[in-house]
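Hi R.,

Quick one: here's the TTF-type domain-containing protein sequence you asked about.
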Amino acid sequence: MHSSSGRKYDSGAFKCKKKPKLEEDAQIQRGALDKYVVIVPQTNSGNHTSDGNIDDGHDDNAVEVEVVTAEIHEVDHGHGDNAQEDEVAATEIDEGNDVNILDEDHDPNILDDMNNSVQPDIFDPRNWDGLDPKKIDILLQKGPKREDIEYGPYDKFSRRFSALSLSRILSNEEKFDREWLVYNNGLDKAFCFCCKLLKRGHVIGQLANEGLSDWIHHGARIKEHESSREHITNMTAWYDFRLRMQKNETIDKVAQRELEKEKEHWRKVLLRILLIVKFLAEHNIAFRGSNSKLYQESNGNFLGLVELLAEFDPVIKEHVDRITNDKILDHYLGPSIQNELINMLAIAIRSRIIEKVKEAKYFSVILDCTPDASHQEQMPLIIM
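And here's the predicted structure, written out as tokens:
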């Protein structure tokens, strides 16, 4: 588009001097409109023309456009010494990023809410240092999330993290989960969840600070940390907080109470069965008869005593009612459980006798041989 006659233009040399300043100003102003826009999912691409025009069918107060990157170009129309005026000549449209421009009548608080709509991932250890107290409380209540990986990347010493470190083998071969230990694959570091969030002042060790990445000595470092006083204090505080935050009226809490009630019932049942076994063994009375069912003839002394207790004891009565009404299959009144309880009592008595022998300075031994009903010699060993 040619200029009208009589209009003056800057020279080419002046334009060349002016161009860096214009580009610098444009770079400074880049992103200045971001506080007035918010990214929304693309639902209708609209009818965009090839030169960046926008369909007129949109609302006047919320015009949907695509993110625009403006570049300043100097176009010379070839008028000799008189060059054309500087202008924005081209607009590049970056497809796939739709924004919603709000007019000036909107509440400024809405813009603040929109700017704060993108929240950091509270489960990422990289964001733990910048969390506010409210987010820390939520994170402590929910607990850490672990990445489902078995091994981390190799370091410069050809060592790497292993998921085996997330659990601990106790002295009785029981496997105990280190719930507090979290590994981040992006950082290739391990963190202590409770110490990282609840530490007061400086805590010694990388697990509570920048993260542990020494995979050569990580086993020893983890053991040192989990036995430290600061870690135990933070673990206790975390468990106490999580326990206080749990609500008693939840379904899980009701189910947990029912489970504990059932556990207590079976403890009482087994205690009474054990006392019956102890009584019969002490008095050298036969346990079983020709029948092994309750309330039938010739079912033996053991089941007879169970029937007797059911007349007076509410725990055994409830247990017998469950058996007779087919509510349970494992009633723990059969011959196998009787033999198992007899063996357990024998082991406990033998262990106690050995302890007394080791503690005593002097003791006497009596040996006697007596034939049993099958005419086999039985030799009892009596220690006094």
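The CA atoms of residues 203 and 230 lie 7 Å apart.

Cheers,
M.
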